[in-house]
Each structure stands twice: as structure tokens, then as C-alpha cells.
Amino acid sequence: MRRLFKKYRKHIWSYVVGSSIIFLIFLGILFFRTSQTGVIYKNVYIGNAYFGGLSKEEAKILLSGTSNNLLEKGATLYFNGDEISLKLQQYATDPDLTREIIKFNVEKTVEKLYEVGRHSFNPLQNLKDTIDVLVAKKEIKAEVEFEENNLYQYFQENLKGYEVPSQNASIHFNGDKIEITNEIVGSQINYENLAKTINSQLSLLQRPYATVNIISKSPTIKKYEVEDRVEEINQALARTPFKIKYRDDIWEITRADLKKMLYFEKVDGVAVLAINKSNFEKFITQIKQVVNIPAKEAKFIIENGRVKEFQTSQLGIAFDGERTRLALNNVLANGFPAVNAVIATDMPKITTSNANELGISTLLGIGESNFTGSPPNRIHNIQTGAEKLNGLLIKPDEEFSLITALGKIDAENGFKPELVIKEGRTVPEFGGGLCQIGTTVFRGAIDSGFNITERRNHSYRVSYYEPAGTDATIYNPSPDLKFINDTPSYVLIQTRIDGTKLFFEFWGTDDGREVVYTKPVIYNTTPPPAVKYIYTTELPVGQKKKLETAHAGADAYFEYNVKYPDNRKELATIFYSHYRPWAEVWLVGTTSTSEKTSGI
User: Fold this and answer.
1) What sign does the dihedral 329-335-341-344 (CA atoms) show?
2) What are the domain boundaries of the chain?
3) 3-state per-residue secondary structure call for 214-268
4) DSSP 3-state assignment of 125?
5) Is the dihedral of CA 586, 587, 590, 594 positive or negative?
């Protein structure tokens, strides 16, 4: 009996001790969780950067400073013994063309840090996550964002000197003698691999160092496939002139013209004699000038409280160069050497002629911005962009895209270029001033109570767009500014310029919605970094030219709420903006291109 009692007592003690240990562990975890209220849990890192014990605001300050420093330094690449300094931001004379190539999402990253041990609705899962944090380092990756196509294009623009383009076997004329040249195997940087490497290192808050990997770029047409086609080329030349007809107009492709256009292209895996796309495009410029009639949307103004049409809609007609080229390819060898120009039509979206049936009666909202101090080209582009949008209609439930509405941004459409820095050289690029349009449209869309579906702030604070936190940058093809006309009727855009102030008015039907938005809160102000000098061969040696002004960094946010009169869920959004501190930038004339931070 005593032996049984001892055994029973032993089990009780084991149970008591085990329960006590479990209770103490639970109590310890509970104490730990309580002690970590409002801060990121201990043992939480990004790379080697420790964020444990920090509040969200403290984490934002640390992350902003670290990420700004990384982006300012850029990436270092290695290729065949060369060390290449690659900037991760594009500098320009106009702030609208200055952009970050890669961007840290500070808000999202801090939320990820804070959610460690808290993210699950399952208390057991949170308990497990808490234990994991207590016993081991928890590493989170920073949210690094980039547009893949934009990044690859940036690589191409800045690293093209390290690539060899592949070349197909081609046709070469030495007088009337025809020669088929050898193909050339090219080499291309593995952009996908480079982007992944840079992204991976930045996500761990490490400065990117990467070896540039080259991939072979094989030509698609080899000499052995086409070297017996000389007679076919001669026959095509003998059939000149080829003619393109449109109504009473005829354009002739002469023998000399055709010599510049002939090449081989692959069709269903077979090399065929054809007309080169890019050379044909140059030839048809004259045809487009005669044939093309741009589509025009019906445009309207508000006059004496009523909607009045001031531009009638017009069907667009465009010469279809590619389909005409394909038609010419079909008659190079046989058939009548003439084709009809292939014409494409472009229907305007708005064709109504009865303006007052559109339901437009009320001013829904106004956006305003000030472009004081803008240079002449920038002012011209603002005026041109505003004129293009004035009088446009947005259909009910239509998602408005500002980039789409502005159309192609080039000299042909009335815009003027500004200078950007690429490979240490200043090159003209279009788009300066259009973020003034983007910012003003964004403010007007907010004031009108529309659902904003895409918006991004500028990389740094710009005086044209103060107060900070209410700006919107655009850059074709992205980022864009988009919103949905979620009112029951058409919305009419009216633009006007008063001195140096730009206004966008949105007219439509008042459906009773209540719009409330706060003034932006600006915080985490940080000083600009050291002066940056970019060396260029375009200036005389030693001569300096100021490119950009220094800007302090900051964060900003404002709250946006829309209450609807029907049963729709209230729209509640907080727009966050992170502005990097931006260095003063100077171009300095030298005999070789490079970059230097600090004094000379």
C-alpha cells in the first residue's frame, strides 16, 4: 500500500511540476507580450539592422534613413574587371522627370515588422510565433518596389556600352553587287538576374554589389539560310517602282528606296525576303502627313450654367503602316507591284451632340496648384496638357487614366523636352511639367469624392506641389494617376490657368455624397545629404552647372473619407507619402564621366 502511495505521490509531483513549468512559461510569454505593447518584438531584424523594441514611428525613422542612404549610394557592378557605379535614381532639370528607379515602401515594411507575433487571428499561432521570436532571430525583408519594364529600360539606357547587339545575316549593296553578310552573335546583360540580385540585397538593407552576367544573344537568321537568295533580291529590285495608293494619291518606292528597305525576317520559322519595319516607318512619314486625321472627342464647356459643346466629335483615320508593309511583302516576288494603303479608323468615345442630356449640372470639386518659378518649357507643357484635358468627359463607372487621356507626349503633340542625365550625359526627354497636371487632377478628384485607384507621390518634396502629401507623379507608362467616376452621370473636366495657378474643375451630378479630407500631417523631417557632383564631357573642363536643388526628406499623410447616400460602404483611405532627402546636384565638366559626393 505504501509503495502504491509513493507511486501516486510521485505522479502528483510530476504533474504539479510540469503544470508549474507550463504556467511559468505561459506567464513569461504573457509578460513578454505585455512588455512589447506598442513596439516591435525583440529579435526582429532586417538583415543586420535591429528593429526590436522600436515603436512604429521610431522604426520608420530608422528604415527611412537607412534606405535613403542605400539609394543615394547606388549599386556597384563588376564586369570584366571594370567597376561600374550605377545610380538608382534619375536626375533631371525638371523635378517631374527626376525619379527613383527603385523605391522602398517604408509604411508596408514597418507594418510587416510590427505584425511579427501579432498577424494571426489564431491565438495559438500567435503564441507559437512569440516563442519563435524569443528563442531565435526573426528576419524580415524590406518591401522594395520597382516597375520591371522601367527598370530593364533603365539598365539598357545606362549599360548599353557593355553589350553587343546580335545581327542577322543581312543584305549589303556594293553598287549593284549584292552581298550577304555574316550573322553576328551578340551579348546581352541578364537584366532579370541583375534586378533580382539588387532587389535581394536592398531587401536586407545591404548596398548592392553585383557581377554583371552576360547571356549570348543568337541571331535568328544565319547566312547559310539566305546566301542563295541573291536572284530573288534582284527580281524584287527589277519590279520597282512599287506603289502605295490612297484615293487620288500615289507614293512610289523606287529602286534606291527598296535597297534601303530589303532585309530578311522569319515567318513561321522560315527566312523570307521582306521590307524592313524601321526603314519603312521612315518612308511612310510623308504618307501619314497626308492620310492621318486624328480622332476628336466631343468637348464641352459650362456657359451660363448650361453645358455647351465647343468641339464636335470626329472619326479618326490613320495609315496602318504594318498592315501595308505586309501587303507589300506579298507582292515583292510576283503580282501587280502596287497596294492600297491600309487604313484604320479610330472611333471617339464621346459622340453625343445633345450636351444637356448628360446630367451635368453641379460643380463637384476643384483642384488647384501653383507653378511659380517654372521655366518656359515647363510652363508650355502645363498649358498644353491642360488644353488637351479641357472639355473631356468621363463616363459613369469609367476608370480615368491620366496618362491615357494625355496621349503621346512628344513634339508632334505640342510638348517640349527637358534634360535628364543618362550615362553621364544630358539627353532630352519629354514629360516635364506634367506632374503639375497630375497633382492638380489628384486634388480635384479628392475634392470631388472619387475613388482613387492609383496614385504615387514624388520621390522628394517639390515646391510646386506644397503642401507635401497631396501630390501625384506620373511617368509613361507608369506610375499613372487613376480614379473611377462612381457618380450616376458623366463628369466634365474644365481647366483654367490664372497667372501661375492651375485649376481643374470636375462637373457632374450631385448624388448627395459627403466628402471629408484632412490637412496633411508632415513629420520625420530629415536634412538633405551632401552635395553630389556628376562629371560630364558635355561641359568645358572645370565648368559647373546646377542641376537640382537640395530638399529635406519627410513623411506625410492625410485621411480621406466619402459617405454615400445609398447603402454603399463608406470609403475610408489614408494616403501616405514618403519623401527622400535629396542632394543638391551639379554637373561638372571633365574628360571622363563619373560621380562624386561632397566637395571638389
Assistant:
1) negative
2) 224-291+315-337, 358-597
3) EEEECCCCCHHHHCCCHHHHHHHHHCCCEEEEECCEEEEECHHHHHHHEEEEEEC
4) helix
5) positive
Report how far residue 118's alpha carbon sits from residue 138's, in angstroms, rounded to the nearest whole number: 13
Cell of 425: 550625359
- What's the pLDDT band for 237 if we cut at 50, 70, 90? very high
Q: Where are the alpha helices (DSSP H) in 523-594?
A: none
- Best mean pLDDT range from 98-112, 159-173, 440-454: 440-454
Distance CA 392, CA 16 (A): 78
Q: Please give the angle made by the CA atoms of 157, 159 and 164, to the nearest 5 degrees.
A: 105
Residue whose C-alpha cell is 468637348: 299
C-beta separation of 525 from 61 below 8 A: no
What residues contact 550, with CB distance under 8 A and at least 6 apart? Answer: 528, 531, 582, 583, 584
Beta partners for residue 78, in sequence order: 83, 211
- Say which residue the cell 510587416 belongs to: 112
Per-residue b or e along 233-269, where b marks 16 or more CB atoms closer than 10 Å to that residue's CB: beebbebbebbbebeeeebebeeebbbbbbbbbeeee
- Look at residue 18 and tell me whether its pLDDT is greater than 80: no
